[in-house]
Design brief:
By secondary structure, this protein is α/β, with parallel strands linked by helices. It is 44% helix and 18% strand. The chain is globular and about 55 Å long. The relative contact order is 0.13.
């Protein structure tokens, strides 16, 4: 884990945009950026807060939860990195935590336990997400919102409906964080293909639960001649990655650490996009016209200074410019297996989206 952490920290300063970070500590200032974590005292929130404290692009880190946040903030604040940290607790302080935020990350809610379904999570987390998004619409309507709270297939539509009602909805600023699916797909593929995982890229499309997660191993790089049986097994393991961790922890937790890592990777990409770094590509569950579904996990590309940024996960690329999405570059080729998987996923994904919309509009 120490090696992975070091690689992550190194990626923040040795990526194609590293000149921005280096110059920020030399002659030119890095833009001031405030990141707010909602649910910062939880199982995902704490390691995510730590990773965001390590990010040199963050100047102000606001940590919010209903309780225990001051302690988490005090602990994280002792780390000798750029950002100033403030902890907020209780409903009364939510507005202060959100004011001026450039990026809001939402890992709030309950984690999945053995035997729990995504519907079980929905019954608890939907109300939490709705309340937090109402506060976002009021206090930082222009922030990029990174939704981690499960089930993402439903919580993103809930957020969209809340923002629409408030008159603040911008589809280019709302993202369901599906980066963990990509992280898993890369890891599992590298193991079978016997290639360095740092060199692997695997687009993942669809949604963020079960069969709605569709890794496109036919488009994975570096190319490897894996059998159909191996591809099928890799696909299922990627789809069931969360369950694998829940069962391994035997009721004592879910995929909190890997999710925090994935959330930090995605937030870092958001910050780079806001700072004008070109060609930032990531994966996310966003409003889309790629399929007949209103939301879909799609691959998108940021391009040009002042762009809102990008998002990703479908086998397509979208270029964003000053006003957000500038051009949809199209879908990549799908194998017959992937086409079949896509069609199988649509009914469940459609149901989850409609469930979130219904909850938000009742």
């Amino acid at each position: 884990m120490r090696a992975s952490m070091l690689r992550f920290i190194k990626s923040l300063t040795t990526s194609p945009s590293s000149h921005i970070v280096r110059r920020g500590y030399a002659s030119e200032a890095v833009p001031e950026r405030k990141v707010t974590v909602l649910g910062a005292a939880g199982g995902i929130g704490q390691p995510l807060s730590l990773l965001m404290k390590l990010n040199p692009l963050v100047s102000n880190l606001a940590l919010y939860d209903i309780a225990n946040t001051p302690g988490v903030a005090a602990d994280v604040s002792h780390i000798n990195t750029r950002s100033e940290v403030v902890g907020y607790a209780s409903d009364a302080e939510l507005g202060k935590a959100l004011e001026g935020a450039d990026v809001v990350i939402i890992p709030a809610g309950v984690p999945r336990k053995p035997g729990m379904t995504r519907d079980d999570l929905f019954n608890i987390n939907a109300g939490i997400v709705k309340g937090l998004c109402e506060a976002i619409a009021k206090h930082c309507p222009n922030a990029l919102v990174n939704m981690i709270s499960n089930p993402v297939n439903s919580t993103v539509p809930i957020a969209a409906e809340v923002f629409k009602k408030a008159g603040t909805y911008d589809p280019k600023r709302l993202f369901g964080v599906t980066t963990l699916d990509v992280v898993r797909a890369k890891t599992f593929y590298a193991g079978k293909a016997m290639v360095p995982v740092a060199e692997v890229n695997v687009p993942v499309v669809g949604g963020h639960a079960g069969i709605t997660i569709l890794p496109l191993f036919s488009q994975a790089t570096p190319k490897a001649n894996l059998s159909d049986e191996v591809i099928t097994a890799l696909t299922k393991r990627t789809q069931d990655g969360g369950t694998e961790v829940v069962e391994a922890k035997a009721g004592k937790g879910s995929a909190t650490l890997s999710m925090a890592y994935a959330g930090a990777i995605f937030a870092d990409a958001c910050l780079k996009g806001l700072n004008g770094v070109p060609d930032v590509i990531e994966c996310s569950f966003v409003q889309s016209t790629v399929t007949e579904l209103p939301f879909f996990a799609s691959r998108m590309q940021h391009s040009g200074a002042s762009s809102l940024f990008y998002s990703c996960i479908f086998a397509m690329e979208v270029r964003l410019g000053k006003n957000g999405v500038e051009e949809v570059l199209g879908l990549g080729p799908l194998s017959d297996f992937e086409k079949e998987g896509l069609e199988k996923s649509k009914p469940e994904l459609k149901s989850s989206i409609e469930k979130g919309i219904k909850f938000a509009t009742q």
